[in-house]
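Example 4.3 (complexes with small molecules)
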Amino acid sequence: MEIRHADVLLTRPGRNYVLVRLETADGLVGWGDATLNGREKAVEAALAEHVLPELDGRDASRVEDAWQSLFRGTYWRGGPVLDSALSGVDTALWDLKGRAAGVPVYDMLGGRTREYATVYTRCGAERVDDIVENAEAALDRGIDHLRVNVGSGDTYLDVARVVDGVNEVRERLGPAPELIVDVHGRAGPREARRIATGLEPADLCFLEDPLRPENKDVFADLRQATTVPLATGELFTDPWEMRPLIEDRLVDFLRVDLAHVGGITAASKLATVAEHHYVETAFHGPPDLSPVGQAASVHVDLSVPNFGVQEFTDYAEVYGDAVTDVFAGGATLDESVGGLDVPDDPGLGIEVDREAAREYDYERSHLPTVRHEDGSVADW
Ligand code: CS2
Ligand code: MG
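Answer. The structure with D-mannonic acid bound is encoded below.
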């Protein structure tokens, strides 16, 4: 299992993805997702210049040792760029390990604890009428966990609009569907308290990223103030960052991103810590996570006992042929249960067509910086 070729591939089949490709001396190939939305070139350079050269000649079967040596062994640890690079390598190593053993990755994580991973889908829009229409379309597809954000991502927080809009959505959809609202790390403590308490009548499954991520202590105040279940983690790029929130039971759901937090190794260990504190998983699954990252997330979802829900992106629906040109296999939605499953193939069960990927050139893009009316910077 000697690593012979370690490459990074930047491709844009609909949007930019950073993929790690590891090939062993006996010709096995493993893939991992290292995409960091808007900072793809920084991760590509970290991989090409610093991380991948260190893997040359190493034993691919030593996944944990690779993780430790890339995270701790390099002195400069953590941060979104280095941890995305580490995530891509870790996931590719698990893929290789599964392919070498002839078993799916979830089998190496302890085996299935469930038949599928229940998903939530995004139904947000500016107008309540459109949210309800999106929600009904999702329910028709068998998905009953719905994210019903009111307003778009680039308007800063309008608390009254969010509270009134989501409560109206609940009234119109009735009590059955599970509803989720993403505050997107935009709120300070005062706004978060108003949103959470204002949304208590909507009986949410959870409120996602209710607070800016810097100061974890503020979650304790919010926890005291509301009965609404809380979730966070997509902005955390270091597994240790979630620890106080899990240990003090300040959140109900762990929402880390497998392409940022340290791959399958970090996510499955964190899930185990969370299990002991009755915290469930709800891994990040936006369109900027590639189908390789989605497949990796579902392998962990299927194996952990404390799975909650998986955020879902339907790549073929959003990006059409471009995505199916490049990726084959991976997670698929079973509409009869509203859940994702992965093939029983060895490894992650997803193939990447390198030649096709090279046809889709990277384009520079970045997330917007939004400002309040007075010109000061707001959280996007
Ligand atoms: C969002 C993301 O899906 C989510 O939960 O918060 O779409 C987020 O905006 C992007 O991943 C940012 O790159
Ligand atoms: Mg989010």
